[in-house]
Design brief:
By secondary structure, the protein is mainly α. The chain contains twelve helices and five strands.
Amino acid sequence: STNFTPAFYNGTGSLTTGFYIIAFDTLDNKNYLILVLSLIYICTLLGNLTVLLVVFLNPSLHNPKYISVCNLAVVDIIMNSVIIPQMVPVFVFNWNFISFQACFTQMFFMHYFGDLESFSLAVLAYDRLIAIYFPLRYSTINTNMRISVILAVIWAAVFCMEMYAVALAASLPYCASRIVRSCCCEHGPVYKLACADITFNRNLATTKTLFVLFGPLSFIFITYIIIVIAVQKIASAKQRKKAFNTCFTHLLLVLTYYLPVILAYILGNLRLVRSPDLFTAILTVSVTLPPMLNPVIYSLKTEELSEKIMKLAGRLKTSPETLKKVSS
């Protein structure tokens, strides 16, 4: 049976109940990397909490589009909260021991919200598709309830998928090395330490990664093909420009998320980066950067949202009672 707190014999004559996270030990000035990641985390919190606050305070933004935007903001916050804060004691103060329970818990939440990031972009693509392809029926097709159900189904499905993979890894016997060569308890670096046949775990991890990355990406690609075909049928050049501008913000989000991750994996698979620690640093930054940039892109490129943010900022400067008065 699966146990998230196993204690296995480590082959050295003693019992251990956890792992030791080792990374960046060959990097010069690794504390600067932690400083950069800490700044990324602070900006992630400030940006995404601002988006959530502005949407919450403005009833005019309580629609399917901004429900999807808020979903992405929540995922962004939790994603970086799972990865970055725990790195400070590990790599600054060398408190690198982590219990089995904490390790597999972190593994679950890190991969869970990483997967949700990808699917959240697909939901935003779906919203744009309905808005452009069925502009007159948008409010009846894509209701608040319907988008909420879609998001709930995605969260539940990804939960089951990640729970299975993590539970399978937690049930393996870890009787040799307990040193995890990563910045945190990633699935791959951990299950590879098991003293058992890990062929199924490896195949599962590969399949899951391909599905999570390229499944939503393929859906997004298809939606844009349909959107381009639909927009070409619009007679007015001004309307065509407006439709493409509507998709531009989402396209930036997609590129911001997928390009760094894909490039990092290409660098790793082609062994263009020889140092494992440098590769881990590149991968960590590529994963944590999109959650910081997402609210910035949406705030700057979405006129409706940027106006609300400027209005809120202006009122905060003039009245301490603003939060009670802000409305659409």
